[in-house]
């Protein structure tokens, strides 16, 4: 496994992280019935990632997977892990942010959250109020870094301006070879300011787990032919920029192990150009 610093936090995260959004039906069943379908398999997948050297796990209060993350990290050295979660857009008033954070801490079974993110913007709540609450959590030691998710560049800059002393450490966006909208303005801004870009859906909703246009051409120039399409797609992301961290879903032990191995594949500029030559959207 290879590691690189996450923004300006000083923490070195694995190039590939683990996401814990499963699907909308899974969330609905967990919310309504308290049912966590396939919990043991998902827990095993996260443990497989930790065993493989993955130290970055992303979750959210709305995912209803924080308790599974807690089970996976129990017994691990806390200071060697980077645990990220999110507050949902319904909870962005100051008191709600703080209550949500404390609930997440209990569910995660941890004294602090490495990265606390605003899951989505909410135009009905002043961004200054939300960011004030985030800074309070930071000052109280309950979180160690502030992030955002699904913000446009304009919304991101408003969030940055609303902070008094702290800085935005990351933004989480839909980013893959088949969804490259962030490259227009968000990625350049993040590269300039050293803000991490957490790429969710890095395998394009499954489009990149099978052979795709450009893959066969790239493999002709790869010395070791063992690499899978999904590993090539992940490598394209973290080879694209030092600020990018893909978080494929940790669904099964086998998938997580393959995703972790992708960190060993470093594409050349020529190979990157081959993949970028095609419009895969």
Our count of domains comes out at: 1
Output the CATH homologous superfamily: NADP-dependent oxidoreductase domain
Mean pLDDT: 95
Would you list the SSEs in sequence order as H and E? EEEHHEHEHEHEHEHEHHEHH
Instruction: Indicate the percent of residues in helices.
Output: 25-40%
- Low-confidence parts, pLDDT < 50 over ≥5 residues? none
| Second CATH tier, the architecture | Alpha-Beta Barrel
Q: Which structural class best describes the helix and strand composition? A: alpha/beta
Salient structural properties:
single chain, 40% helix, TIM Barrel, two-stranded antiparallel sheet, alpha/beta, 11 helices
Helix-strand blueprint:
Layout: E1 3-5, E2 12-14, E3 18-19, H1 24-33, H2 39-51, E4 56-58, H3 66-73, E5 82-87, H4 94-108, E6 115-118, H5 127-139, E7 146-149, H6 153-162, E8 168-174, H7 186-193, E9 196-200, H8 215-220, H9 229-240, E10 244-246, H10 253-261, H11 269-276
Parallel strand pairs: 3-4, 4-5, 5-6, 6-7, 7-8, 8-9, 9-10
Antiparallel strand pairs: 1-2
Helix pairs in contact: 2-3, 2-10, 4-5
Description of the molecule:
- With 281 residues, the chain is α/β, with parallel strands linked by helices.
- The protein has one domain: NADP-dependent oxidoreductase domain (TIM Barrel, Alpha-Beta Barrel), CATH 3.20.20.
- 40% of the residues lie in helices and 14% in strands.
- The protein has helices at 24-33, 39-51, 66-73, 94-108, 127-139, 153-162, 186-193, 215-220, 229-240, 253-261, 269-276; strands at residues 3-5, 12-14, 18-19, 56-58, 82-87, 115-118, 146-149, 168-174, 196-200, 244-246.
- The protein has an eight-stranded parallel β-sheet with strand order 3-4-5-6-7-8-9-10. It has a two-stranded antiparallel ribbon with strand order 1-2.
- 43% of the residues are buried.
- The mean pLDDT is 95.
